Amino acid sequence: MIFAMAPRAESPVSELLRISRAEKASKPKPKPRPEPVLGVEPEPEPEPEPEPAPEPEIKSKRFMPRILTSQKSRFFEVLAEGHTVAYSAKAAGFSTATGSRLNREFIQTKTAIAERERKAQGRTAGPLVHSELCHEAKMALEDFTYFQRRYFGVVGHPWQKESAEMLAAAVLTPEREYFVINVFPGSGKSTLYSCHIPAWLTCRNRAFRGMIGSATTRLAEAHLRRLRKAFERTIPEQADADQLQLGNQFDADATLSEEFGRFKPAHRELWTARDIVVEQLEARGPISEKEPTWSSFSIESGFLGMRYPFIVWDDLVTPDNQRTADKREEMQEIWRKICETRLEPGGVLILLGQRLYGDDLYRYVLDMQVPVDEDDEIQDTETHIVAMQPKYTHIVYKAHYEEKCTPESHKRGAKAYPDGCLLVPSRFSWIDVRRKMQDSDWLTVYQQEDVDPREVLVDPDWIYGCAARDVPGCRDMDRKVWEVPRMLGDGEITVVASADPSPTKFWAVELWMYQPRNEMRYLIAVERRKMDAPDFLDWDETHGQFTGLMDAWQTLSEQIGYPISHWVIEANAAQRWLLQFDHFKRWQERRQVEVIPHTTGRNKADPELGVQTIAPHYRFGRVRLPWADEEARLTSLKLVHEVTRYPHGRTDDCVMAQWFFEWNLPDIYRPTPFASTRAWRPSWMRRSA
Question: Contact at 8 Å (CB) between 548 and 536?
Fold first, then answer.
């Protein structure tokens, strides 16, 4: 049997001796020194070469994966939203330790950049008067497109220059100026109106003040942050590499602080995320801290105390605050009580954004009217109805202008509007336009139209008439409210009043005359306001008489010679109580009228008798609206605004009231059957028969 012998283990001392011998053997042997020769100096020995630095010791041989740029971007995006480092690292797909290292490096880099900017700010000269500005700066104050190119590296477009010059002129007028500016999404409107134009106005006048508002605090502060960075920047802005290659952006040539002087005060002044105070010229002195140069404000912030000569409300209209009628009415009240009241005399107020719905806040604001100047004459001396005019100036920038459309304007590098058909070809090309044209919101969101005529109950052309489309229109230019149509004739007439009541909201009451001979429907009167049941009909015990709109209309209809024969009133669960009152039944018996309760249910969407049956009557001019004076127009517009926006409108009370009338009309009017008479025949024929 053969046994394998294990090797004997070396002692620690033997191991050290073996290593020492190996190191000595590896060292090169020194050259022997030459023998000295008489009369000859020995050569100096060369200096020993320095030993190479030892290589850093690698603690771990484990493979470390490479962090992608997309992962870093994702990490900092999540971190900027307020999440922890651990959560952001997990979302980016790497460890918490890596995330901590990246965050630490970012903080160090950010601190170093801030320190360099602080030192550069210290070296920047104070505010410069106009005579001290360089030639380029003076030219930028006059040319807004050059201002954008020199200090922001932006290729300006004609519509941007037009808008900037229009607002600069409006600031100088003594009257308050109100604007609604609708621009399609992705056009760069927020950067233009919350950064470039405010910066240009401030460079022209450092004492100029303004406010940038939005729906949320985050958006409002983001807009002001962009403007604040433009004033602070000491190094010209660098263009995005991709945009630079495409020619859409350039590296800026200079900074605002370099050529106009310091904007951020050297001393401790107001310069926060919500308010900034621009350093003033020595001749003007400092602005009080109670009057910041630029401020940010949001609807979430609540009370707005100060007034401003220039206010921009950007992205105030959102799907959330426009989705329901209650939220829309709430926003309307906020606009009237908060947004409009903060404007100083001679100031400019701008409501900026893209249209979302056919009857959103923009439409509500555009419908506001004010009396014309006091120097103008009264329109109607008998009724003393003062002429009205729109309160807001409407500025629309569409994505595509069909009247400018040519094959050359669709090519890459084509000129922008007004020379071409595209407003911003570099940001929204013809390919983008063709894709978006297929969407249902193309006309509203990108073309800034109230509604798409294909998606509403009544096309506006059907109301106002269009000869090109052979549409007669529905306006009676010679008839006022409560005036009998002149062409009514002596034929049979049916007079019906319809009401859409509400226990908490607006009521809509309409009076119609129906002429069976030509199927014309004449609108006589419209009332739309908040009412209670007693406002509609009540019994006054003190005077022993009926009161309310229902009794008043019945009396007026008798005075014009066409008494109301039927009242159609919605009687769903919330309104059924109205028809159960004793005084209501007594009034019906006294007036000898028929009250028809209408129940809204599935019949609302009935393909043959639903709401859509109203449309053909407008299309062929069978609905006639009073339009002779201002009162008649305002009365008819209550119905017009709803039928031309249904089902996307803010309210539909007037639409429903008209539909109640149309739904019940076949039961109200029954044609008299033709009485057949025996034809005359000669006597000899009668005898033969």
Answer: yes
178 in the Ramachandran plot: left (φ > 0), alpha (ψ -120 to 50) or beta?
beta
- Calpha distance 161→74 (Å, rounded): 36
446 burial type by CB count under 10 A (0-12 exposed, 13-18 middle, 19+ buried): buried
Q: Are strands 566-570 and 594-598 parallel, antiparallel or unpaired?
A: parallel
Residue that has been written with the tokens 């550069």 in this structure: 120
3-state secondary structure of 398: coil
Distance CA 147, CA 145 (A): 5
User: Residue 509: helix, strand or coil by DSSP?
Assistant: strand
Residues 146 and 143: their CA atoms lie apart, in Å, by 5
Q: How far is 433 from 626, CA to CA, in rounded Å?
A: 41
Q: 50-69, pLDDT tens digit by residue? A: 555 554 444 444 445 678 88
Q: Six-digit token pair at 176?
A: 């308050």
CB 257 within 8 A of CB 263: yes
Cβ(293)–Cβ(203) below 8 Å: no
Strands 393-397 and 538-540: unpaired
Q: What is the 3-state secondary structure (H, E, C) of 369-384?
A: EEECCCCCCCCECCCC
Q: Give tens-digit pLDDT for 345-359.
A: 999 999 999 988 777
**Average confidence (pLDDT) over 285-304:** 74
| pLDDT at residue 253 in the model | 92
**Whole-number mean pLDDT of the chain?**
81
3-state secondary structure of 471: strand
- Phi then psi for residue 301, to 5 deg, are -70, -20
pLDDT of 28 > 90? The answer is no
478/685 Cα distance (integer angstroms)? 57
Domains and CATH numbers, the chain: 69-123 (no CATH), 130-373+389-396 (3.40.50), 406-452 (no CATH), 460-668 (3.30.420)
Is the predicted pLDDT of residue 435 greater than 80, yes or no? Answer: yes
Token pair for 268: 């401790």
pLDDT at res. 212: 94
Q: Which residues pair with 623 in a beta bridge?
A: 521
> Is 640 in a helix, a strand, or coil?
helix
Tokens of 482: 């409560």
Angle subtended by helix axes 144-152 and 135-142, to nearest 10: 130
Q: What is the DSSP string of 221-269?
A: HHHHHHHHHHHH--SPPPPPHHHHHHTSB---S--HHHHH---S-SSS-
- 531-547 residue pLDDT tens: 888 899 999 988 889 99
Q: CA-to-CA distance for 462 and 639, rounded, in angstroms?
A: 13
Q: Is the pLDDT of residue 673 over 70?
A: no
Residue 160 in tokens: 């941007």
What are the backbone dihedrals phi and psi of residue 445, each rounded to the nearest 5 degrees, phi first? -80, -40
> What single string gives the DSSP state of each residue in 279-327?
PPPTTT-PPPTTS-SEEEEEGGG------EEEEEEES---HHHHSSHHH
CA distances from 235 to 117, 148, 230, 334, 400 (A): 8, 16, 10, 41, 37
Q: Does residue 272 have a pLDDT over 70?
A: yes
DSSP 3-state of 422? strand
Place of tokens 């190996």: 22
Whether omega before 607 lies within 30 degrees of 0, making that bond cis, reads no
